[in-house]
Design a protein that fits this description.
By secondary structure, the chain is mainly alpha-helical. It has a single domain, classed as Cytochrome c oxidase-like, subunit I domain (Cytochrome C Oxidase, Chain A, Up-down Bundle). Helix 1 packs antiparallel against helix 2, helix 2 packs across helix 6 and helix 4 packs antiparallel against helix 5. The radius of gyration is 21 Å and the shape is globular. The two termini are 29 Å apart.
């Protein structure tokens, strides 16, 4: 049955609240860092004398704060709300959840400080030094323990697909994080040569495929039927999507390494599975879209549902582009340029980020027992992000195609810079828009959680 969004909160949901605030606060920091980095692409000497504001330090800070500061906590906030509800029990331990939130934020602060100071393992998506890796892995273990003990004490025998996705995301990411960050070698955090590149991109792609994607799917599978006031279209299709995602996505990271001397069989597996991703993607999308068929008015009328449904459309776009980019003839043009950056923004901000924010706006009235502080600010943030991520996709795709075709024809890097300068300016302007959306979102979420009088302005 659909929930009453303004019913009195039946539990404290302290862990969910903690991750809500974590996500909103770090989204501001992550987007601010990204905006400053974008400005440096326009004016490279802007912060040239400040070491901790160099682009080479801002870029990994931005990436890791978006992944682990904004999107993952936002999705975990939703999971800490709907997992106990689907199991018809309370979370096993709210105290353990709060400890996890504190540990998570300590790791994020340490990440920002150490990367700004130049302390890094120098591996993309795996830059954090070993003590931070240990803290993140510990936090994932605590989350999984809390979830699995909640499952053990459940009053509902059937495990709805959202529970499957949430448990798999946390369990598999714990394993892939340890592998990708080579935690058994604290001194370097890496292997040597090609094996390290293979292992790194196994991890780098699975941060999205085995963490953000399952958690996003879990939120969508719970919230869209609630918003549409109808059952999920097909539970069988949901399990097909789940198992095909786990089996297929795991192997596609090597499509980032088609230009390097990786074994050919591994490249072939990565390319084939990249194309085969159409199976889990369409199984998920058909299920969600058929659930919402004829109910778009209800989705438009619910701010959380609107964020999440838009996120599913972004998932379709980013998945099509991902499969296309895995083809060697296409990658000759798109590799190492702004096309890839645009693709990443559609996936992380457009798909997972939109769903994370939708989850926050859906659960906050239910964990506080009060309406959102401002539906206007939430809707404003929706449009700012939609414009921003759409702009990123268009501008960075054009810029990337200019770079890729110029390099393919033997042009040097510096001679292309003047051609893409205007696109970097537009990119920075869009970054400012996203940062302002994060500020308005934090204000709205903070007031909703702490000081909302119970009425929408």
């Amino acid at each position: 049955m659909p929930e009453n969004p303004t019913r009195p909160a039946t539990a404290a949901y302290l862990t969910a609240r903690g991750f809500c605030l974590t996500s909103a606060a770090w989204m501001m920091m992550a987007t601010l860092v990204g905006f400053i980095a974008a400005l440096e692409l326009v004016a490279p000497d802007l912060t040239a004398n400040i070491s901790w504001l160099l682009f080479s330090r801002l870029r990994p800070i931005h990436v890791n704060l978006v992944l682990f500061g904004f999107v993952t906590p936002g999705l975990l906030a939703g999971a800490f709300y709907f997992v106990p509800r689907l199991l018809r029990t309370e979370l096993y331990s709210e105290k353990l959840g709060i400890v996890t939130v504190i540990l998570w934020n300590m790791a994020l602060v340490a990440t920002m400080v150490t990367l700004a100071a130049g302390l890094t393992q120098g591996r993309e998506y795996a830059e954090m030094i070993w003590p931070i890796d240990a803290g993140i892995v510990t936090a994932f273990c605590l989350i999984f323990f809390n979830f699995i003990m909640t499952v053990k004490h459940r009053n509902e025998k059937i495990l709805y697909v959202s529970v499957w996705y949430a448990l798999a995301a946390v369990a598999l990411t714990t394993c892939t994080y340890c592998l990708g960050n080579v935690v058994w070698k604290p001194d370097s955090g890496s292997l040597t040569g090609i094996p390290d590149a293979i292992l790194l991109w196994f991890y780098g792609h699975n941060v999205f495929g085995l963490l953000l994607t399952p958690l996003s799917a879990a939120a969508a599978y719970y919230i869209i039927p609630q918003v549409c006031r109808s059952p999920l279209y097909s539970h069988t299709l949901s399990l097909l999507g789940f198992w095909s995602l786990i089996v297929i996505y795991t192997h596609i990271g090597t499509h980032h390494l088609l230009q390097v001397p990786v074994p050919t069989w591994l490249k072939v597996v990565a390319i084939v599975d990249s194309i085969a991703m159409v199976i889990p993607v369409m199984a998920f999308l058909i299920n969600i879209w058929y659930t919402a068929r004829g109910k778009l008015g209800l989705i438009h009328g619910d701010i959380g549902g609107k964020f999440i449904f838009t996120g599913t459309i972004m998932y379709f776009i980013v998945s099509i582009l991902g499969s296309l980019m895995a083809l060697p003839d296409v990658q000759r043009v798109t590799h190492f340029n702004h096309w890839v950056v645009g693709h990443a923004h559609i996936g992380v901000l457009g798909f997972s980020g939109m769903i994370a924010l939708g989850g926050l706006y859906f659960i906050i009235p239910r964990i506080t027992g009060k309406p959102l502080f401002s539906l206007f600010l939430a809707d404003l943030q929706y449009w700012m992000i939609l414009i921003g991520v759409s702009g990123f996709a268009i501008v960075l795709t054009i810029s990337g195609l200019i770079q890729g075709h110029a390099w393919l024809n033997g042009e040097t890097v510096y001679r292309v810079l003047s051609e893409i300068h205007i696109y970097n300016i537009i990119r920075a302007a869009l970054g400012l828009l996203i940062f302002l959306s994060a500020v308005s979102g934090f204000y709205n979420i903070f007031r909703s959680v702490f000081s909302n009088p119970g009425e929408n302005p």
